[in-house]
Amino acid sequence: MLDLSYDLPKVKTIAGAKHDWELVIGMEVHAQVSSNSKLFSGASTLFGAEANSNVAFVDAGMPGMLPVINEFCVEQAVRTGLGLKAQINLTSAFDRKNYFYPDLPQGYQISQLYHPIVGEGEVLVEMGAGSAKEAPTARLVRIERIHLEQDAGKSIHDMDPAMSFVDLNRTGVALMEIVSRPDIRGPEEAAAYLGKLRQILRYLGTCDGNMQSGSMRADVNVSICLPGAYEKYQETQDFSHLGTRCEIKNMNSMRFIQAAIEVEARRQIAIVEAGGSVEQETRLYDPDKNETRSMRSKEEAHDYRYFPDPDLLPLEIEQSWVDAIEASLPELPDAKKARFMSDFGLSDYDASVLTAETADAVYFEAVAEAAGDGKLAANWVINELFGRLKKDDAGIADSPVSPAQLAGIIALIKADEISGKIAKDLFEIVYTEGGDPAEIVAARGMKQVTDTGAIEQAVDDIIAANPAQVEKAQQNPKLAGWFVGQVMKATGGKANPAVVNQIVAKKLAG
Amino acid sequence: MSDLNTMTIAQARDALRAGETTSAELTDACLNAIEAAGELGAFVHNTPDVARAQAASADARIAQGDAPSLCGIPLGIKDLFCTKGVPSQAASRILEGFKPEYESTVSGQLFDRGAVMLGKLNMDEFAMGSSNETSVYGNAVNPWRAGNSDAALTPGGSSGGSASAVAADLCLGATGTDTGGSIRQPAAFTGIVGIKPTYGRCSRWGVVAFASSLDQAGPMTKTVRDAAIMLEGMCGHDAKDSTSADLAVPDFEAALTGDIRGKVIGIPKEYRMDGMPAEIAKLWEDGTAMLRDAGAEIRDISLPHTKYALPAYYVIAPAEASSNLARYDGVRFGHRASLAQGDGITEMYEKTRAEGFGAEVQRRVMVGTYVLSAGFYDAYYNRARRVRALIKQDFDTVFAAGVDAILTPATPSAAFELGRKVDDPVEMYLNDVFTVTVNLAGLPGISVPTGLDEKGLPLGLQLIGRPWEEADLLNTAYALETAAGFVAKPQKWW
User: Fold this and answer.
1) Which end of chain A has less neighbouring CB within 10 Å, N or C?
2) How far is B207 from chain A (nearest CA, A)?
3) For chain A, how many structural domains are there in total?
């Protein structure tokens, strides 16, 4: 199903004082697993609960407490891996990542360093689908691995001048860390990659993708190289062709990610062009100053003393279970988009827009099927419905117009019962007041007038009342439009425009 | 009836069922004995109110004819077990004042079966030690004395309080835990029986962790029969412990036929260490002869990687401990150091842990941190894991060749004087030389008292069994116990 006939997007270059530079970007995305309970405890994962109310003894690191894996979280990780066309590892294992912090009660995070549950996969990142005019391009970004790990709690430093507080509600919530290869070539691609990942995860139901509440966060590795070097890396997979990378930690906004990459690349270019060298380090992005700042250097990097968690046996899963999960996967964005293009004759752009969210796609498909016209359905869903919903700051789930109602409006257009203009009025009535479109049209006399006798009468009246205009129009047939407009006005817009055109032309021709 | 506290679990069970005594009487006898035995330092938190209430409900159950084997039996619980609402501090200052909101699976199972908790028992801090001298409560003392000497001897460790209490008849049995020999060595030092079951037999849930891949709970009792009864009450699958085995628990007591004819007993040559005291060598030979006389086939075997076991153990156990003990940071429970003006979170960690942990715990945390650190991980931790796999393979090979159990000394010596080894950690660690292999391989091991040394101190032999075959191992131990006829008791001086 996957259509790889796209051209590659143009690599972002930044002009330095001496050279043009290219960017090389790899991302580690932390996606919170959609699950009612935590990775190793039965405590709730509900966001926004009262501080420290969703904490099991094991989450609080109480003595003698032990972790027990939440099978549903494993299933979600497998589902995610399958959705990213990745290798599923039937045996994986958990390791402890040791460090001290008050919001890490055990003194270690349980993660999967040595044997992650998901291996190599891929994500098709389309570019230029943001507008109907640009020709779409796309890049295949390789996924290196996905592993399961515990989230930390939250330290709160601004409630008291002398003390810090800790909220353990988030402690132990399951995260998937999705690690890409350095296949991303610019800030826009990074945002598009994250957007595509978010879309796929939301389709799969494995992460709600809510970036504001921190359900998706990204660490971004950025380096720069001269044109040509990246191709050598891709040929050999030898990282020495690439520049030294810096990792920008913990960002949860597409806009900030793009800005951070840009400003970090420029920082590195300035260093290298001045004859210096980039230090490998972890940095933080400050959106207020639009700069990245060193968080800790390689020397200051924690020694996490990873070792296999002795409280947990290796995680063994059955191929048959993986197969069952695979069989239950929903149609994913790439496949759905390709199908919309082939089955409904939609453009790449329209298909992209309509498959952005599962709910949009489901809505569209219901309209298209009921109306029997995919293209018209796409126009109405994208231009009228989405536009109107946007005005109300609402989503498809809040739409007061059901697919059947919208299909009813489209059916009236197709049957020549109403004109396009009337259809828009009708849409507004259905949107605000509800009701069956056909009944509304009948009850309110909105039906298009196709009775040529009535239209002829109206044309005759206007011709009779405007002899000067008739003379002009006979000399310049383009002015016939004025008569058409007058007729439409006189009939309250209900006259069939095609019929009016025809009669006006005939009458003017005498 | 006087001296009810000197009964075995089996005797008490039968007497309770026959209506010859009550749990309340048994419990009072034990509480009186504990009261009079302060010098032993065995019990560190007494729970007479809990005990009397549990005894009353046990008596009610027995009256109704609902009397599981442990119903009404007064026990001591090692301080490493979290007991709900009762101080549980792993003999450490860092858990000062800690009263858990939960009951460990093992102690909970015992109480569900009607057992009575007399109190919490002394131990080495976080179970790290072989003499009970690292306890924040001060050491427990061995009820045995050498000849006419009144020098205080160690009860062994880490389950020193458990051993002392059972040997001195302060309770009918006690829970212990064993990471490198912490049940078997103190049992041998005090003339009682102690079994460490197969790793995964007893749930670790609610037991303060020392080294998670090695820790196992087990009973410490006066007889092998009591060990069988109590082990059955302690073990079983627990979904809350991912390393707990989902296996049925056999009727261990029913396995005690004493018939070991045709069983193959392995004698590993590598355990014949240089400088082994003659009386230990003789004890071993005598034990071998007893099993042969009982109809077992004696076979010389080799466990070639034995000599690497102790170093591997003292890498793996501290490594896990350094991580397991990270949670004691003063943030949520237990001891927190008082801080000076301007102190931040780092100072809080440093001061709290410096004050809260004793020297031995600090030593192991530092060793463990070192062996896991970048650059040393492969040389120490990974190498130790490979050694561990080879040690397990040694045992697998021997068992595959038909050996049913392996007989070794339990300890390199009898109980030593308190204070004698406390300044030399390496000499202290050598106490575990015969026992750590069993933990590294995850096997069941039992210590049985079989004789006295020339100063009249008890000595024990260790039997090592096949994984999950505790029933068979207990039966072999029962045959050894019967043949040895060890009945000596310490002279009461406390």
Assistant:
1) C
2) 5
3) 3
